[in-house]
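hey
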């Protein structure tokens, strides 16, 4: 029997391998990099069932236009002559409406809740995995009246869909963050959310899979595919040919190029984000989003990670220091007493989140094929949605029904 080939060694690829090998399926994973530093290792590590609104939402167009004029803004599309970018922006514009968002909410919510449940199972099954999983919720802290209105409206919406949401005043926030004052009007706490150390999770999974016999091929560039009819029989690379029983495309921001090689459209842009770690003094205890600046705060005891920005950048991986300054300046804007220090360039992590135009991932069989599955396009929620995506792909791989409805994630929806 030929192995299943997974293309892409990010967190979605690893969780797909994890669930496949549990079913006794031989897995070979190939990646274009050395897997030492990627989009899965330095993000905020948040597990967020509360995030039921996709990136393409009403209001993002007008906000995005305003943010375009600031190099430190949370969301930025660099204007350039690029057909792929123009196509992506047009599809984003078409998806950013209330009807599409209402359709997306149940799919995103159920995928997120499945992931959260799988993380809980993972924690029980692997008590030795030091992944710093903290299940204390996520706080959305706001400073302005307009954002306060938005967040409280969203809290009511989340409750309507069965999620817990607590509206906090300043006295409530002080109980959650006793060590320092927040310069905010208030906050919303989502108790069902969590966060973990993404680098520790990634390292544990990779070592675990290697020990279980999953074969890893690093620095291996996919050049094409060998097909017979609607079946892919081999993956062609610069390191030779890999024969395949089935193929999973989990290539992150490069998945669009893989789809093109197989003759189908998978609109995708890399959304560049940055993060850096600071000594946690005075200690921040609560995972938080600084909402006006869209900055994520993930505390891990004596360290805390600050991360953010969504810079639609294709596959450009250079560091834009102005965007990092935007994250850094937000720290003391919200935490006036926090002892922040601007990071050296070699201390700044960057990653390309794979962004679909409608803000929903691609999960399922690739159009025009019988043995190719896709798991990509998770945007900022790769860590949050990876276990559920891997589980569903393993179920589809074995011709089983998926645990949840996945019509909203159809791979060929833009074909």
């Amino acid at each position: 029997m030929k192995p299943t080939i997974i293309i892409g060694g990010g967190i979605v690829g690893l969780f797909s391998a994890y669930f496949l090998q549990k079913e006794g399926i031989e897995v070979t994973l190939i990646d274009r990099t050395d897997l030492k530093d990627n989009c899965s290792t330095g993000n905020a590590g948040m597990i967020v069932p509360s995030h039921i609104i996709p990136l393409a939402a009403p209001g993002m167009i007008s906000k995005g236009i305003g943010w375009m004029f600031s190099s430190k803004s949370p969301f930025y599309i660099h204007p350039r002559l690029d057909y792929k970018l123009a196509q992506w922006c047009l599809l984003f514009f078409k998806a950013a409406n209330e009807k599409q968002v209402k359709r997306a909410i149940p799919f995103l919510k159920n995928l997120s809740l499945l992931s959260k449940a799988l993380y809980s199972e993972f924690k029980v099954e692997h008590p030795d995995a030091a992944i710093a999983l903290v299940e204390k919720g996520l706080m959305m802290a706001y400073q302005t009246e307009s954002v306060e209105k938005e967040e409280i409206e969203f809290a009511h919406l989340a409750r309507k869909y069965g999620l817990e949401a607590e509206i906090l005043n300043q006295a409530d926030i002080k109980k959650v963050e006793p060590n320092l004052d927040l310069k905010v009007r208030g906050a919303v706490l989502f108790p069902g959310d969590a966060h973990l150390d993404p680098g520790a999770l990634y390292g544990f999974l990779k070592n675990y899979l290697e020990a279980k016999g999953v074969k890893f091929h690093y620095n291996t560039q996919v050049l094409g595919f060998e097909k017979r009819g609607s079946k892919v029989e081999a993956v062609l690379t610069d390191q030779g040919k890999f024969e395949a029983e089935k193929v999973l495309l989990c290539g992150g921001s490069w998945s669009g190029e893989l789809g093109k090689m197989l003759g189908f459209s998978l609109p995708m842009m890399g959304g560049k984000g940055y993060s850096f770690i600071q000594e946690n003094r005075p200690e921040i205890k609560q995972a938080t989003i600084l909402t006006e600046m869209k900055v994520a705060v993930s505390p891990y005891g004596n360290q805390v990670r600050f991360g953010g920005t969504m810079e639609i950048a294709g596959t450009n991986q250079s560091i834009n220091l102005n965007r990092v300054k935007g994250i850094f300046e937000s720290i003391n804007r919200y935490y006036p007493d926090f002892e922040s220090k601007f990071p050296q360039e070699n201390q700044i992590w960057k990653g390309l989140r794979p962004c679909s135009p409608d803000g929903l991932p691609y999960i399922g069989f690739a159009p025009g094929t019988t043995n190719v599955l896709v798991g990509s396009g998770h945007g900022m929620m790769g860590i949050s949605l990876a276990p559920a995506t891997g589980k569903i792909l393993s179920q589809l791989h074995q011709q089983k029904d998926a645990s949840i409805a996945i019509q909203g994630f159809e791979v060929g929806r833009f074909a």
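The chain has a mean pLDDT of 93. Residues 164 and 190 are 6 Å apart (CA to CA).
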